[in-house]
Amino acid sequence: MRVSRIQAAENRQTVINVASRLFRERGFDGIGLKDLMEGAGLTQGGFYKQFASKEDLVAEASRRALESASRRWSDAAAENPDDPLGAVIAFYLSADHREEKMDGCPIVALGADAARQGPDVKAAFEAGIKAHLEVLGRFIAETDGEEPKGKAMAILSTMVGAVTLSRVVNDPDLAQALLDAAVEQVRDAAAA
């Protein structure tokens, strides 16, 4: 049975959405095409009608995950326009976000995997990282003639590193202490 173009486009978007979540949970190599397509409610046979390769899907799913993450930052900031950076810090450096494997930060979940991928996947991550830096730069604003770009880079690096480290330790107290220390450092860096 033939699938209409509209249905094929919807199926493609479904696969990208499912892949963006499953890749964050299991890594790029942690899930095969059969399980991925099954998770999208489709058969494996339809994959190559939608994507040139798994790497093509990885790049698309990475873009989608990073766009979603950037949107979450903007949404958190919009909920607290008086302190947008504080809202992002509270959301991002939280125990809840640390536990969000499927919907959490793709930079944390897939950064090491992305470093071993081809140029299309790296380009998706680069664009996503630049978008995060842009959002942070707007929150920080210029202080005493200092460029917000370098400060935003340090803050993003601290936040990503803290969530990463908090996810790889077994001790819940240490995990929380890593997040708490990052909150202090990020607030100090932003205020400096």
UniProtKB/TrEMBL annotation:
InterPro entries documented for this protein: Homeodomain-like_sf (IPR009057), HTH_TetR (IPR001647), Tet_transcr_reg_TetR-rel_C_sf (IPR036271)
Pfam families assigned: TetR_N (PF00440)
Designated name of the protein: TetR family transcriptional regulator
Domain HTH tetR-type: 9-69
Annotated organism of origin: Bradyrhizobium icense
Taxonomic path: Bacteria, Pseudomonadati, Pseudomonadota, Alphaproteobacteria, Hyphomicrobiales
GO molecular function, one term: DNA binding
PANTHER family: TRANSCRIPTIONAL REGULATORY PROTEIN
PROSITE patterns the record matches: HTH_TETR_2
DNA-binding region positions on the chain: 32-51
Keyword line: DNA-binding, Transcription, Transcription regulation
Entry keyword annotation includes Calcium: no
